[in-house]
Amino acid sequence: MSRPAEGIPEPRHRLGLAALAGRGRETAVGGEDGPCGPDVVGGLAAAWAEAVAGTSYVSMSRSEIEQHLAGLTRQLVTALLAEPFDPTPARQVGAAMVAAHFTGTETLNRTVALLATELPARLGLFRDGCQGPVVERVAAVQGALAAGYAEALRQRTLDEQEAISQAVFVARDQTEQALRASEARFRAVFAEAAIGIGVGDMAGRILEANASLLEMMGYSLEELRQRNVRDFMHPEDAASVWRLYDELVHGQRDHFRVEKRFFRSDGEVIWTHLTVSLIRDDRGHPTYQVAMIEDVTDRHLLQERLRYQALHDPLTGLPNRALFLDRLSRAFETGGRDGRVGLCYLDLDGFKVINDSLGHDVGDQLLVAVGQRLDACVSAPGRLVARIGGDEFIILVERSGSTQDVVVIADHVLAALEAPIRVGEHELAVSASIGLVERPVHGTTPADVMRDADITLYWAKSDGKAKWALFDPERNAREVARFTLSATMPAAIERGEFYLDYQPLVRLSDGQLVGAEALVRWRHPEFGLLAPDRFIGLAEETGQIVPLGRWVLREACRQARLWQDRFGQRAPFISVNLAVRQSRDPSLVADVAKVLAETGVEPGRLQLELTESAVMGTADEPLDALRALSAMGVRIAIDDFGTGYSNLAYLRHLPVHELKIAGSFVEGLRASAADGSHVVDARIVGTLVSLAHALGLGVTAEGVETEAQARRLDDIGCDSGQGWYFARPGPPDQITRLLS
Ligand code: C2E
Ligand code: MG
Ligand code: MG
Fold first, then answer.
1. Which atom of ligand 1 is found nearest the CA of 725?
2. For residue 611, which atom of ligand 1 is closest to its CA?
3. What is the pLDDT of residues 625-654, one digit of tens each?
4. Choice from 489, 502, 535, 536 to test ligand 1 binding pocket (greatest atom count within 8 A of CB)
5. Which segment of 59-73, 140-154, 643-657 scores lowest on mean pLDDT?
6. Which CATH number among 3.30.450.20, 3.40.50.1820, 3.30.565.10, 3.40.50.300 corresponds to the domain 195-301?
7. Do the Cβ atoms of 449 and 437 come closer than 8 Å?
8. What span, in angstroms and rounded, lies between the C-alpha atoms of 349 and 335?
């Protein structure tokens, strides 16, 4: 502030003002009575104080103000009178006014006016015609004071602003610090989170991503920022993923959580748990989306692997039964009204032999090789080859066009297995039996199809090896009925559902009733009255014929005893059919003996009818049984003679008493046919009869339906006849009536 104030003119005249001022008074400037003496200065200060009174708010009394201004007045006077003249100290006076808060708007005005009038006047400077230089000096002092004042005021304003801004800054700094602290905490969480976090705007532009996310995805932040969320669509994303995303960006939901896979920058796929949340602004408008992405690839792969293991056969790597059943059910669910499904159920022929003879290792390798061949020859979209049991494979055709489709596959499979399979040093010939089922899914169930495939495989097996069989509902219905019958037979015997009809055996020479054949019937609660051909064969297969035959024998003998009691010697013998299986039953002889003993029927009144196959070409035991029965006095008859081996010469060695000639021979004797075939038949029967008689056997003709047949048979020499001509099989009363 000591430099000369700009724009303040240097005094044009250099004259000794101090001298001027002191003239006549002889007083030095600073002396007691000089221009700076207490009178002059005090007067000036009082006038100054008077001029500025009330223009500024200063915390001083009037006398303190005067005292303060007196100091400043002295400086001004000194500056005005100084030689050489320098107005600069007046600047300090201006600055001092500001410092003492003489800063009211009128204060400077009045001070400057006072300097122009009172200061020179009181110093007596307007005397002696030197007004010009005085005015110039006063103006310079005024200017310097005003400049110092303005400068100080400006500085003070600046200082005040600075103080305010400093205060504001400090205040702001403190809030910022708090904010920064919370932001830092947030940043740390964001940056160091193990989970990937990304922030995007509502258009899907990626704005931020933390280190975990970058590492997970294999991108730099810059690369990610150039991408859109939708770029991360995976072709196999569930449709729901992007539907949920759309709902979120349209503000219809606030978050969603899905399992989703992503492509990394290197093309690798990662599996994640993705949670996306919507961030709204103060007014609730969607502004950002935040994605939290957890890499669960390892967990997922493990699960996949476990799932794979659960659904595949470890030996062949083929789908297992569980996967097959799952796909089968799905084929049903998605098949709709017109969908069809096909199964080829395949079982290796003779696998057990290979396994048992060459060992399980060879067996295992063979299964692997078969699995490969099947897969190679069958595999196509919509088809599944599964291993569902030891040597059982199944081929599922999910959308079959027609039955022909599965037939073609079965042919391919049989052809593919024709070439031997090499396992170690073994060349193994394998074949398979295949059960085929092909049908619309509508109206059936997976369980039905599986059951029918199983049945059909069984048919294929029993038809011979290396064959396929196609499911046939009629055959199945028959078999089901047969199965039902055989399953219910034991209970039926106990419930008394069986009964016997009796058909007379008549002596041809005089028409005398000599015997009665017992023929079993089943009054079935569901199927009605069943003839023996419906259930005897079945009973033979299942073995039920043994208890059933025992019941027939006892029932027939019970009836025979009644006739025996009533008619004595005229009572008919009873003829009971024995199935092959019964004839081979070791307890046959004992059973017969027991029944005869229990019922008291004479053994000679019991005849047992056996077919030729039961007595011919068999081992010794059954013949021993027949011999034992014969020795007991029981008669043995060969039933339906002529339909089997018809080895008359062999009969010589057998304990047989009667031949029953099958109805088919008798048929030819019905009448005189135009071609003369009746003559041939008559000759055959005639030969049979004479040969039988030569062996000491009696002959009964079956199926006698007409009087002519009966007469002819009598002419030929046949002993007895049985047939509708005499009587149809009927209840025992019929026999009783005929005898009475
Ligand atoms: P089968 O022993 O040859 O019995 C004679 C069959 O010829 C009977 O049929 C009888 O009804 C029928 N028949 C009798 N006269 C005539 C005729 O003039 N013309 C024609 N066309 N048929 C006639 P059914 O009762 O149906 O018995 C069929 C077969 O069932 C029997 O043939 C027999 O082999 C077997 N069977 C019947 N009952 C038993 C039984 O208790 N045990 C065993 N193991 N088999 C039995
Ligand atoms: Mg018979
Ligand atoms: Mg017969």
1. 18
2. 34
3. 999 999 999 999 999 988 776 677 777 778
4. 536
5. 643-657
6. 3.30.450.20
7. yes
8. 33
